[in-house]
Amino acid sequence: MLYVPNDILNADVGIAQRPYLGGEFAIYYTFKQAVLMGIITLTGPTSGTFAREPGTLLPATDGAHLQMSLLTSLYNAPGDLAVSISAKGATSATLTGTATFSNPTWLRDQSGNWPLGASVDVVAAADELWITGTPDISLGTVVNGVAGAKLGIFMLPAAADWILIGCTGEVRISDKSRKPKNIACGLNQSAFVKPGNSEIGTVNIASKVRSFLEGLQRIRGARVTIMGVGTKEDAVMTDRFVLTSTIVSTPVRLPEGDGEVVAEAEGNYEDALYFAAPQES
Asked: What is the rounded CA–CA span in Å between residue 48 and residue 112?
């Protein structure tokens, strides 16, 4: 499955640029895990190192797409960051794909500054899939890299794995960016500000209860992957997010009389991946 939404038509840019309503997001879950296959650390504009996560395997026959996500913020990239990787393809002896962090033209900020969690698909020729075998995943070329930035290579669930929660209410996702840390000097309590520890990744999802074995109630206490898909005015999909390795508890509120029964899931996730739709050229 490719996670970057389809290109936004030029005629629909006006819709894409309008703010979201909360109800324009559909929330899904799956018991299939998002797998971190390895971490790339950039060491310069055209170089980096790759640390493979031991024991993680691509599918043997069906194959999979791969995604790349920023595990740190990326500042002052001189152009579109492009990172290529290679591995065994479903039909190719060696398949090369490239993850390109390019600003969608419908966004106002066209700088080379990218936040934690910004994500793209690793695109190979004809959308060919990767499978396990030789060669294993390896780092190829780097273009417009920034030393110190880290990227994760992920294998996310397939399209058929996702199950719609349905009829969700408020959804809240914390930001795992590093919190500001004030350093005092004399009587100035914030003479210096540095990034400190990250926030804890928390997620809260409210949903109407159809059954105690359905929707949020189905995933209570389990390790799941969560996905949100934003579609504006029922016409233009502009964003998708994925929360990996999520565990929630799902207390239920049973109101008096004809009040609506609501499950209010609360829990934690490990990584948040955010995908934005490009605009047609």
From this structure: 18
Domain final residue pick, 155, 182, 211: 155
Cα gap 147→48, rounded to integer Å: 8
What pLDDT is stored for residue 25 in this prediction? 97
Closest CA to 64 of 109, 14, 110, 128: 128
Q: Could you tell me if 217 and 209 are in contact, meaning their C-beta atoms sit under 8 angstroms apart?
A: yes
**Residue type at 65?**
H
C-beta separation of 6 from 277 below 8 A: yes
Q: What is the Cβ-side half-sphere exposure of residue 257, based on CA atoms within 13 angstroms? A: 2
pLDDT in tens, 229-264: 999 999 999 999 999 999 999 999 999 999 999 999
* Residue 21 is assigned to a structural domain of this protein: no
Phi, psi of 214 (to 5 degrees): -135, 150
Tally of domains within the chain: 2
CATH number at residue 208: 2.30.110
Distance, in Å, from the CA atom of 8 to the CA atom of 16, rounded to the nearest integer, reads: 8
Q: Check residue 107 and give its pLDDT.
A: 96
Question: Given this model, what pLDDT does residue 76 score?
Answer: 95
Residue closest to 12 by CA, chosen among 277, 241, 229: 277
Note the pLDDT of residue 208: 96
CA distances to 15, 26, 32, 45, 281 from 162, in Å: 26, 11, 9, 37, 30
pTM: 0.96
